[in-house]
Each structure stands twice: as structure tokens, then as C-alpha cells.
Amino acid sequence: MMGDTDSLFNHTLFHSLSSTDWFLIVYLIAIMLFKVIAMATTNAAGGVGGTFAPSLFVGAFAGATLAVICQTVFGWDASITSFTLAGMAGVMSGVMKAPLTAIFLIAELSNGYGLFIPLMIVSCISFAVNYGLDRDSIYTKQLRMRGELLTHDKDSSAFVFLRLDQLMETDFIRIRESLTLGDIVNIISSARRNIFPVVDNYGNLLGIVQLDDLRRDMFDRDKWGTPIMHYMIQPPDKILEHEMIQSIMPRFEQANTWMLPVVDKQNHYLGFISKSRILNAYREALVNVSQAD
Amino acid sequence: MAFYFTSVNSKVGGFYNSIQQQWRKWLYAGISLGVLIFIFPPSMARVTTALEP
């Protein structure tokens, strides 16, 4: 853009206003703001909107708008070209958190190092302000929100590789709420685990029965008729199937237990997750992460 | 401006992530992009003059 602002209004509804100074500024700002929304909408809905070129575009418009404001409002002799290039560098270094890339890219783009000092100043200020407001670049932000960002923090990096569905144990014998203690004693003789999930006909988790609670009564044949619901307890906590391992570990601490049942959103029983299994897998993942460096 | 860029990007991304059905995402995005392109059409000065005889 070499100051030819009239071409901006070609084919628009506002062509009649193109010679109005204040409208030019409003129009430039509106394009700048809505360009971001258009880009984000395209990207979010599944299209390919890019982030690199739009950030340069928005930067160019930011710089040009400032130059136009300086010219028309204050009457200063501001170069639209230089302001546009500096704006591109500034927004790019802030969005990508890459000030040096921005400085050199725009310096090469403008085919000369005459603007080098202004580019450095703009890029550094923009980087510093944006780093203060938000430490992530546009690329790492989504990863961090999903908890998948691998950083130098090896502890949390190792957790990223742990998947709940892979660590979940499903070899527990499900028991119905209608069974009695006698039925359970028969089941126990063939069971390998000491916790039994109690489920109804629809697979909903009603509670759990622990072998420790049955031990006193299971050798007393007179009590074999007792319904199992009498021994059932509620689990201290339930884990949802898609939870991240990082959020599960504190729940074990709160519940002060080594085993927690995993259910889906409709409370259907899926399996159990044990703290010792997570810790074992965590150790292996940590070794892998450390060796990868 | 760069902060506006990143924050709007993540807000719009969050809004579209909250929509479950894919056709609904396309519908909303299509309507909003259509309105935006109508208000801010591409300035095709050179193309149109080239096409004119």
C-alpha cells in the first residue's frame, strides 16, 4: 500500500465515503479487527486459514492505521510504508513469540537494513508485552490447553505419555446387587483381585465390595444368606474415562486409596485404575523422556 | 494488537470446539465468513479492469 487508499473501497458498500478521512481510519481498524475473526473462524471450523500470513496482514494494517492517524489527525509526516513494515514485525513477533524471526523477515522483505533499528524496537516491545500477558505463542497455546505441551519440565512431559485407557485394569469380576455372601464366597475362590465392582443390569456402578470387609463373615456359613448390598461401600471417588493422568494423581491423595473405579459419563463401570500401576508406567515414561534428550 | 490476535483466535477456537456437530460448525463459519466477505469484499481492481474489453 503506497498511500492509495481509494482502492481499499473498490466494490464495497462504502465507496461514497472513501474520501472521508475519519471513515478511512474506521474502515482500516474494522478490517484489522474482522480479519482476525475471519481467520480464527476459518481455522476453527476446519478450513485452512493460516496464522502466519494473517498475522503479517494484521500487523501491516495496524502500522498503516497508525500512520494514517498520524497524518490526518496530528498532521505529522509519517511514512505509511515504514509504519506498515514496523507493524508487521511487531504483530508477528508478538503472535509467534519470535522477535528475531520478525526482525530479519521484515528487514529482508523491505530489501534493506535502513529500518533495522525501528524493527528491533517494535519487535522487542511487542514481544515483551505479549510475553507478559500470555507466555504461550499461538502454536503452543492449544497444546498447553490440552495438556500435551512437551517442555523442559520432564515431570509433566512424562505424564503426557500416560493414557488412562491403557493403564486401566479390567480383570475384576463384576457382581450383581442381588447376590448373597454365599455366592461371593464361591466367586472369591476363583478371583485374583480383592475388589469387586457391584453393577446393575444396565452396567451402572452401584458400589464396590472389598474382600477385607467380607473376611470376618465369609467363614461363617450362617451368614452366607446375607445380601451383598449389606457389605457394599461407595468408592471414595470415581474417575471419568477421558481424564488426564495428571488430574487423577491428586485424587488418589485426597481419597487416600490405591484403587479407584473408572466410569463413563453415564456412570457405567469400565474398570479400575491403580496408583501403583500409574507410578510404574510413569517411571518408564520418565526414563524414556530423559533418554530422548 | 498481537495479544488481541491470539486471544480472539483462542476464543473463537473455543467457541467452535464447543459445537459438537461438524455441519453446524460449517454453517456458522459459512454464514459469518459470508457476511464478512460481503462487507469487506476483496478489492479486485486489476482483475476487473483486465476483464473489461
The biggest sheet of chain A, with number of strands, parallel, antiparallel or mixed sense and barrel status, is: 3 strands, mixed
Between the first and last Cα atoms of chain B, what is the distance in angstroms? 43 Å
CA-based gyration radius of chain B: 16 Å
Structure annotation, total helices of chain A: 12
Number of DSSP E strands of chain B: 0
Mean pLDDT reading of chain B? 79
* Fraction of residues in β-strands of chain B: under 5%
Count of DSSP helices of chain B?
Answer: 3
Q: What's the oligomerization state?
A: heterodimer
Task: Give a verbal description of the structure.
The complex is a heterodimer of chains A (293) and B (53). Chain A is 53% helix and 9% strand. Chain A has helices at 21-44, 52-74, 80-96, 99-109, 116-133, 138-145, 154-160, 164-167, 181-190, 211-214, 245-255, 275-292, and strands spanning 175-176, 195-199, 205-210, 239-240, 259-263, 269-274. In chain A, helix 1 (21-44) runs antiparallel to helix 2 (52-74). Chain A is elongated. Chain A starts with 20 loop residues before the first helix and ends with a helix. Chain B has helices at residues 2-18, 22-39, 45-51. The longest helix of chain B has 18 residues, at 22-39.
Core attributes:
heterodimer, A: 293 residues, mainly alpha, three-stranded mixed β-sheet, 6 strands, elongated, B: 53 residues, flat
Fold topology:
The complex is a heterodimer of chains A (293) and B (53).
Chain A (H helix, E strand, L loop, with lengths): L20 H24 L7 H23 L5 H17 L2 H11 L6 H18 L4 H8 L8 H7 L3 H4 L7 E2 L4 H10 L4 E5 L5 E6 H4 L24 E2 L4 H11 L3 E5 L5 E6 H18 L1
Parallel strand pairs in A: 1-2, 4-5
Antiparallel strand pairs in A: 2-3, 5-6
Helix pairs in contact in A: 1-2, 2-3, 3-4, 3-5, 4-5, 7-12
Chain B lengths: L1 H17 L3 H18 L5 H7 L2
What is the gist of this entry?
The complex is a heterodimer of chains A (293) and B (53). Chain A has 293 residues and is mostly helical.
